[in-house]
Write a structure and sequence with these properties.
binds thiamine diphosphate; 42% helix; alpha/beta; Transketolase N-terminal domain-containing protein; two-stranded antiparallel sheet; 8% strand
Length: 479
């Protein structure tokens, strides 16, 4: 496949990655006081990871100290019982929403709650009050049917798009919590998913966009583009051909900031994956050129998950697949580890049994106060992340005004004034030519004036004439 073909993904996704801008969305200036959790660092870790050091990177929001570094560096964790309580909150929000709708997929959120918690509470940088902050980390739920996981996380993190009433109207007409994530319905959802494999392919595109923009606009003294793309995919996504194609490109391009979690729970709709899917996914990904880590206990191995993320971040030149072995429907005494929890409500009796089993005495949709309080730090921390980036960008703008203006126009999706004047003109007297040749003339004319234009072709550029002559191919090392 010619490397130019690779750009089809970025063409489609660059716009998605950068098209929203902060000014359209309100920022929360009412920063409430936050209490700081106790940070114990990693207690036990896998052999490949090093012990986390004490968090030193404290930042300030207004007059209060916020351990923003805690969110960013994995150094921070609260005591395990609070982590567990938060994870169970995610599980029960999913259980309760599916139960109320009598429709949906509780199994995946129950199994993936630990990795979801660690990602949104300890790892990712985002601003819940401005879901469109440009340099946020991206998250894609490729296994879109498990969307209650994402809605529960957005709710806890403080996104205004997913309030309690939104959780209560899961899967209802015109709700902001449709049955699969939709980015135009729910701010905070980056990518609409559902067709299996599509999300991971989109995530490759997002990571590609990050790498391309970083190569183009970062300076030795200012890394203005610097974020990760995280994705959760399941067995179903792994079965799809598109995921393999996109993942092949991801390692070809060396997308080191793409970190994929493979929810290895061995169950899909029809039952055990033994029915139809027995390949060695680890070996396939190694063959593709990915760094592969296996977290054997994704249900309660919180430190294993943390260590895997830390290890993945240290690998700069390859994307990482973290295979996380989990139990679908974890906590449900009679339905876990079976297809019956994949896509149906548990039913009142089993919900009660799960409440008993996980020691959950609360009413449906309840978020315990200490969990609420713990997550509340993301509002000020997110504001700090964005404010710091804005300050960095202001400095960048002073030194590199041309590049800053160009990047801003890409972020805002604004076309340069008079761009259309670059187009060649034709008259009835112009010599006849093949449409693909005329298309090439136009594409190349536009490439000179549209800084955000990327293109691609499926191993067909020299035939359908989509080469942008003034640019080379997007390649690892010179992107
Ligand atoms: C391309 C495509 N084919 C089929 C489906 C229907 N489908 C939805 S979920 C699912 C099974 C997914 O299994 P898995 O990823 O293991 O999710 P889990 O059972 O762990 O929730 C299938 C086949 C789909 N959404 N997209």
């Amino acid at each position: 496949m010619a490397s130019t073909s690779s750009l089809t993904l970025s063409q489609a996704l660059l716009a998605r990655a950068v098209s929203h801008h902060a000014t359209e969305h309100r920022r929360d200036s009412r920063l409430s006081p936050v209490s700081l959790p106790t940070f114990s660092g990693l207690k036990s870790i896998t052999s490949t990871a090093t012990r986390a050091t004490t968090a030193t990177n404290c930042r300030r929001v207004s007059s209060r100290q916020v351990r923003a570094a805690a969110v960013e560096t994995l150094d921070a964790t609260t005591d395990t019982s609070l982590v567990e309580k938060s994870i169970n909150t995610i599980r029960f929000l999913a259980i309760d929403a599916v139960e109320k709708a009598n429709s949906g997929h509780p199994g995946l959120p129950m199994g993936c709650a630990p990795m979801g918690h660690i990602l949104y509470d300890e790892v990712m940088r985002y601003n819940p009050k401005n879901p469109y902050w440009f340099n946020r980390d991206r998250f894609v739920l490729s296994a879109g049917h498990g969307c209650m996981l994402q809605y529960a996380l957005l709710h806890l993190a403080g996104y205004d798009s997913v309030k309690e009433e939104d959780l209560k109207s899961f899967r209802q007409w015109e709700s902001r919590t449709p049955g699969h994530p939709e980015n135009f319905e729910t701010p905070g959802v980056e990518v609409t998913t559902g067709p299996l494999g599509q999300g991971i392919a989109n995530a490759v595109g997002l990571a590609l966009a990050e790498k391309h923009l970083a190569a183009r606009y970062n300076k030795p003294d200012s890394e203005i583009v610097d974020h990760y793309t995280y994705v959760i995919l399941g067995d179903g996504c792994q079965m799809e051909g598109i995921s393999n194609e996109a993942c092949s490109l991801a390692s070809h391009w060396g997308l080191g900031k793409l970190i994929a979690f493979y929810d290895d729970n061995h169950i899909s709709i029809d039952g055990d994956t033994e029915i139809a899917f027995t390949e060695d996914v680890d070996k396939r990904f190694e063959g593709l050129g990915w760094h592969v880590i296996w977290v054997k206990n994704g249900n309660t191995g919180y430190d294993e998950i943390r260590a895997a993320i830390k290890e993945a971040k240290a690998v700069k030149d390859k994307p990482t697949l973290i295979k996380v072995t989990t139990t679908i429907g974890y906590g449900s005494p009679n339905k876990s580890n079976s297809y019956s929890v994949h896509g149906s409500a548990l039913g009142a009796k089993e919900v009660d049994a799960t409440r008993q089993n996980l020691g959950w005495p609360y009413e449906p949709f309840h978020v315990p106060d200490d969990v609420k309080q713990h997550w509340s730090r993301h509002t000020p921390a997110g504001a700090t992340f964005e404010a710091e980036w804005n300050a960095k960008f202001a400095e960048y703008e002073k030194k590199y005004s041309e590049e800053a203006a160009e990047l801003k126009s890409i972020i805002n999706g604004v076309l340069p004034a008079g761009w259309e004047k670059a187009l060649p003109t034709y008259t009835p007297e112009s010599p006849a030519d093949a449409t693909r040749n005329l298309s090439q003339q136009n594409l190349n004319a536009l490439a000179k004036v549209l800084p955000g234009l990327l293109g691609g072709s499926a191993d067909l550029a020299s035939s359908n004439m989509t080469l942008l002559k003034m640019f080379g191919d997007f390649q690892k090392g010179h992107s």
